[in-house]
Amino acid sequence: MNDMSSIDEVGLEQPLAQLRSVLIAGETVEAWAVQIRLYALLHRRLLIAATSGRLIVLGRKLLGGFDVTTIRWQDLEEVTLRVGLLSADLADLASLGASGAQQVEFRGLRRSQAQAVYRICQSQDQAWREKRRVRELEELRARSGGIQVSPASVGAGAAGERDAVRRLQEAKQMLDERLITDAEYEAIKAKIISS
Known about the structure:
Largest sheet: 4 strands, antiparallel
Number of strands: 9
Order of helices and strands: HEEEEEEEEEHHH
Distance between the termini: 53 Å
Strand content: 15-25%
Structural class: alpha+beta
Shape: elongated
Radius of gyration: 24 Å
Number of helices: 4
Strand order of the largest sheet: 1-2-3-4
């Protein structure tokens, strides 16, 4: 974990102060990484911070001020860390915003700082995958609650069978994607077949 009070390079005081100013109440910075000057010859250096609630990217504007970009943890899909001899890259930060999937890459970060940010990203990614798995499981359980068949409707039996087959296929797909365990799949399957 990076300590925001220990600044080992001149010029980071202002970006770190700006980072502190955009934190919401109760949000803490868990790790941050800055680009090595050599990698930022054609643009202003970036500061990437992993907080308790999101990933924040600060870029200094040419004439003063900062651009702040936020990636929510629940929008994070995959993170890749490539460590080189001099620096490290964080890549494939796929964000599922309103505009669709977006690939983001940060090159030339300090190795130890990038590794600290990567660990936080992986931890948050795992936590949100588990939350999504539980939510999908609950939705599947709600959908497999039983087949409603009205005797007055014509062809209701065939429609009910199609619905049961569809729900079984969804459960099997969730099992194949490892969103549910074998035992959970068998319980869902038994409930669908018995109804």
